[in-house]
Design a protein that fits this description.
heterodimer; A: alpha+beta; Butyryl-Coa Dehydrogenase, subunit A, domain 1; Butyryl-CoA Dehydrogenase, subunit A, domain 2; Butyryl-CoA Dehydrogenase, subunit A, domain 3; 3 domains; four-stranded mixed beta sheet; four-stranded antiparallel beta sheet; B: alpha+beta; 52% helix
């Protein structure tokens, strides 16, 4: 038996013995997702156990190095683990911005000490992170950010405001873009620092959105303290890391929740006559969408295969982000059409408290967050098509 | 299978791109049009294509081909799309070779495929009878006659029907128009008595014909595949043809984008390069995105067809998406070029004319969107 085959067998046995039965039912919504962190309230003892067991093995972050709390798995092994988890429909034990965003940035730009300090608690789900990027006057023009970090020897004093900070009210630490040099050109005075949110100088205020939910916050810094040991990369060179993470985020956003085709939903809701949805106009609209969506899914596959073959994704991630998010908005408009007036129920059990309408409204931010569609088009025009400024 | 070209395919692409750019650029098509050459292609080019192995790109080595499969054929078609290179490649080396491959007897394959691969046999494809592509809607009658068949009726939009050696003809041996059963395929000699081939000058300046059958006698040995069950063989063959048309449309769209971007980088108005205007940048970037996404669907479909099995869903996906993108690309190319894009002197017009014709061939966007939905269970 090859090493990979025996790895598959061991993994299968271990998952069989350690994944609680209730964690083998796909997550139905936000409430089923484990975000971890100091203040996280586990939905069940099973959820806590599942995180603890996977975290101890480093399998919440299978491909991170073992010394930083990861599983130390090769690409092939990580694939096998993912496939075996899918096989038993195991939920992801932990979802977090630490895993998805800060981790990759620290692995690339952090010092050994920073990795040792911050990565293992992410892997075990002990610390929940948020991202401090946008400000009231620095949205699409992110590099115009003005949150000030003053050099006080071994630490910085941070003053300013962030906005659209996802789950800042629930986060323990923040990775934050701050200005350390007000005299340099706007891209050259930015630094990337980490600090604890649990200190007197930090406060958050959730923003009520059109969906009725508040996933984003305003975050205020009033003489907040950030240790210099937690400056990632060089001072004033934070924009490089910011750009890396934005590219990473764009690839991630366009990749999130690969759309399940609308076929099943439409057939279930509308029924068919001679194998076709009766509403011919809607059938055509769904087909148009699905043709674009299938082509896009194959584009993600092609982008991954090209990256593997040594190609550079670079600005192509802007195409994926722009196209993928516009598709998702279109998809939710179609979900409304398929559901008719049922889609607009806002409260009550029948609609799971207006899930369809609230999810639809949430998608309107897809083409704004992580760089608007227009910003992505600017990037394609300049960096891929070489059009003049 | 990785969704990228392998080394062998990448080399083929380089050689095909270079070959057609040098031997058959748009200026050649313009010349053929202006000289009113009946065949609408150059025999010299066709012979050189045969030498390059392009005519046998999909044909197996035993039958004289180079066996590069659908991905190989798509690479050649994309290069021809970029250059609008005119030749019987699609009708003979792709559509006919695929239909014969799917429907033909061993004997028909061994006698026909090597001749196609050598560029010695060209075939026209006679399916449609109205402006709408609908194989099951074929009404033309083939009645039994003296051990063979007698054909009566008319075909339109016959691909490469002028100057072809033979025609592949879809006709009804039983049943009524609209029924999937009762159709049969015939391989009819273009010199047969009672066969009238009218060259049709079409928008794209390529080889098309209307063909009238006035009691054309054709022997039983010219039947391709089982009598009355043609669609079973024709559809997989046509699906390959459709995917390769999608590759040609992709080449057209890519070339329109490339030429437009170059123009945006050179043309000045209001004292600046027009490529600096965000209104134009966003149009170009959106077109870039659509082409990138289309490329994935087309490559995926070619790989699916090479892998075998049922690839109808992939074929309709690729043709539909390529139709939509080529329509966008050709329209945008004219708009962003401004007035000069409207002139015959400028090449962009040739691209929009070819694109629309290819879009209509073997099913347009609506045909394939509806078929895609049917294949998806709705």
């Amino acid at each position: 038996m090859s090493d990979l085959e025996s790895f598959r067998e061991e993994t299968r046995d271990w998952l069989e013995a350690n994944c609680p039965a209730s964690m083998r039912i796909p997550a139905a919504g936000e409430a089923d997702i484990c975000w971890g962190g100091r203040n996280f309230v586990f939905q069940s003892e099973d959820q806590r156990l599942w995180l603890e067991r996977m975290g101890a093995r480093g399998w919440t972050v299978p491909s991170w190095p073992k010394e930083y709390g990861g599983g130390g798995l090769s690409k092939e092994e990580a694939k096998i683990l993912a496939a075996e988890m899918r096989r038993i429909k195991a939920r992801s034990p932990l979802v977090s911005f630490g895993i998805w965003m800060l981790g990759p940035a620290l692995l690339k730009f952090g010092t050994h000490e920073q990795k040792l300090e911050h990565l293992p608690p992410i892997a075990r789900g002990e610390i929940r992170w948020c991202q401090g990027y946008s400000e009231p006057n620095a949205g699409s023009d992110l590099a115009a950010l003005a949150t000030k970090a003053e050099d006080k020897g071994d630490h910085y004093i941070v003053n300013g405001q962030k906005v659209w900070t996802s789950y800042a009210d629930k986060a323990d630490w923040i990775f934050c873009l701050v200005r350390t040099d007000f005299d340099a050109s706007k891209h050259n005075g930015i630094s990337f620092v980490l600090f604890d949110m649990n200190q007197p100088g930090v406060s958050t205020k959730p923003i009520l959105l059109i969906s009725g939910n508040s996933p984003f916050c305003e975050t205020f810094f009033d003489d907040a303290v950030a240790s210099k040991a937690n400056l990632v990369g060089e001072e004033n060179k934070g924009w490089t890391i910011a750009k890396y993470l934005l590219t990473h985020e764009r690839t991630g956003i366009s990749d999130m929740g690969l759309p399940t085709p609308l076929n099943a939903l439409a057939v279930e809701k509308l029924g068919t006559v001679d194998g076709q949805i009766g509403d011919k106009m809607l059938r055509h609209q769904i087909a148009e969408h699905e043709i674009d969506a299938a082509s896009f899914v194959f584009t993600l596959e092609r982008a991954k295969d090209e990256a593997k073959a040594g190609g550079d994704m670079g600005a192509f991630s802007s195409m994926l982000k722009g196209y993928g998010t516009e598709l998702n908005k279109d998809r939710h408009e179609l979900i409304l059409k398929v559901n008719g007036s049922d889609a607009f129920e806002w409260e009550g059990q029948f609609s799971n408290n207006g899930e369809i309408a609230r999810n639809w409204l949430r998608t309107k931010a897809n083409s704004i967050e992580g760089g608007t569609t227009e910003v992505q088009l600017n990037i394609i025009a300049k960096r891929i098509l070489n059009l003049p400024s | 299978m990785a969704l990228v070209l392998n080394e062998e395919q990448a080399l083929l692409k380089e050689s095909a791109d270079g070959f057609f750019a040098e031997k058959a650029p748009v200026s050649e098509l313009r010349q053929l049009r202006d000289d009113k050459i009946e065949a609408c292609y150059s025999l010299d080019l066709w012979n050189e294509m045969a030498e390059m192995g392009f005519c046998g790109i999909m044909i197996d080595e035993e039958n004289g081909g180079v066996d590069f499969g659908m991905v190989g054929a798509g690479i050649v078609a994309e290069a021809m799309g970029k250059n609008l290179s005119a030749s019987p490649f699609h009708a003979s080396a792709v559509a006919a070779a695929s239909i014969i491959g799917a429907a033909g007897s061993e004997q028909q394959k061994t006698s026909l495929l090597p001749a196609i691969a050598a560029g010695e046999l060209t075939l026209g494809i006679a399916i449609d009878e109205t402006g709408a592509h609908d194989p099951a809607g074929v009404a033309m009658k083939a009645t039994t006659s003296g051990g063979g068949f007698k054909l009566n009726g008319m075909k339109t939009f016959v691909q490469d029907g002028t100057c072809a050696d033979k025609l592949i003809v879809l006709a009804r041996t039983s049943g009524e128009a609209g029924e999937a059963d009762g159709l049969s395929l015939f391989l009819v000699d273009s010199m047969a008595a009672g066969l009238i081939i009218d060259q049709t000058v079409m928008t794209d300046s390529r080889n098309w014909a209307k063909v009238t059958f006035e009691g054309v006698e054709t022997g039983a040995e010219t039947l391709l595949g089982e009598e009355g069950a043609a669609l079973k063989f024709l559809e997989p063959g046509l699906d390959k043809a459709r995917i390769i048309l999608a590759a040609e449309l992709l080449g057209i769209a890519q070339e329109c984008l490339d030429q437009t971007v170059t123009y945006l980088q050179e043309r000045k108005q209001f004292g600046v390069l027009i490529g600096s205007f965000q209104g134009l940048q966003h149009r170009a970037a959106q077109l870039f995105s659509e082409i990138a996404v289309t490329r994935s669907a087309v490559l995926k479909a070619m790989q699916a067809a090479d892998a075998g099995g049922d690839f109808r869903w992939f074929a309709s996906l690729a043709k539909a998406k390529a139709c939509k993108t080529a329509e966008l690309a050709t329209n945008e190319a004219i708009q962003m070029h401004g007035g000069i894009g409207m002139t015959d002197e400028f090449d962009i017009g040739f691209y929009i004319k070819r694109a629309r014709t290819v879009q209509a061939l073997y099913g347009d966007y609506n045909y394939h969107a509806s078929r895609f939905a049917a294949c998806s269970g709705y």
